[in-house]
Amino acid sequence: LPGSERPVVTYALLGLNTVMLFVAALLTGSGFGLLDPSARALCRLGALNAAAIAESGQWWRLLTVMVLHGGLLHWAFNSWALWAFGPTLEGLLGRLRFVALYVGTGLVGAGASFAFNQTALGVGASGAIFGLLGALVAYFFRRRQAGGSVPLQNLLLVLVLNLFIASRSTNIDNLAHVGGFLAGLVAMGLWDAAGPRNRGV
Known about the structure:
By secondary structure, this protein is mostly helical.
């Protein structure tokens, strides 16, 4: 894929998520805060909470949810996925469009969770991560006859495995994943369809 610049946006997102992991641990006030931050700490930092959004107008929670995680393991999985997908898309789209893709798909994922799941406590960058996955699926699907079939199959396998694992757990918000994935799929499809001459728009 084109683009050889250092993926500074990906680095910045990884750094922000890491800082917020430690902030949540500090607010928890326990030695296990890094592994299992308290619900109170996460809520104070901006976790997704349907009641707070609907009744108190705290719409910013749809954005802040993306930088919070429910512990070290949750953070590690999302960080690995961001590191795997982020540099490729940042190099392809450019930094500004990559930020728009990441934040936009994360917002759609959080919105889907809020609207259809009425989430009481939600954290994680998973909606945005699945948005990146959806964008890569759309990109390689369009190029499946020109060497894109193998990465497309691998990405679809990752998608199916993640959705299956999520369906077996009540703690994983599949609606946020699906919402983010569909948003990334559509966004990349539109970007690709626009063609090089119109992508500035």
